[in-house]
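Hi support team,

I submitted a single chain yesterday and got back a structure, but I'm not sure I'm reading the token output correctly. Could someone confirm the output below corresponds to the sequence I sent? I've pasted both exactly as they appear in my results page.

Thanks,
R.
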Amino acid sequence: MKLVVLTPEKELVNCEVTAVEVPGTKGRFMIWPGHAPLLSSLTEGLVRYDPLDSNAREKLPISGGFVEVINDEITVCAG
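Hi R., thanks for writing in. Yes, this is the structure output for that exact sequence:
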């Protein structure tokens, strides 16, 4: 899967991942390969993701925004 995290100022992340966890406004949820198309609002919290080329889970704080998932491409627009 491809993960892109954007803010109004710049692109923060652009990498291949095996899983992503986001802070949805109704609770945290995971995005796995083959996930159904999705558009969801996000609240303040951490975006956690597992890069394809690393065994370490990465964490990125956000203040809110939204996430879109289409065909294993995950785009987070964060504030």
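A quick pointer for reading it: The chain has a mean pLDDT of 96. Let us know if anything else looks off.

Best,
Support desk
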